[in-house]
Amino acid sequence: QVQLVESGGGLVQAGGSLRLSCAASGSTSSITNIGWYRQAPGKQRELVASVRNVGAINYADSVKARFTISRDNAKNTVDLQMNSLQPEDTAAYYCHAGYWRSGRYIDAWGQGTQVTVSS
Question: Is the pLDDT confidence value at 84 over 90?
Fold first, then answer.
């Protein structure tokens, strides 16, 4: 089983920056991809950025060139550096990890951290 704990959310003015961190524990060696999703009120949860074990990185078009995801396999952490934040980035941000257990692919989620960007 994989557990995820996020930190680093908060309130920031438009144009500012925040850094989110996610610490994974448990069966971290079975993780195949890890990253960040977000969910704004009344909207579906959407991918922000993810990193696969082979190193491939995927960003949502809306955050490319503003957000940077980084993974530290030795520390089992994944960070999201968010620059040039805009009010539309306001959402609950969730750390996500996909991993295999007993032949089944499982999605693990953190508890979420709120990011609020004021105009």
Answer: yes
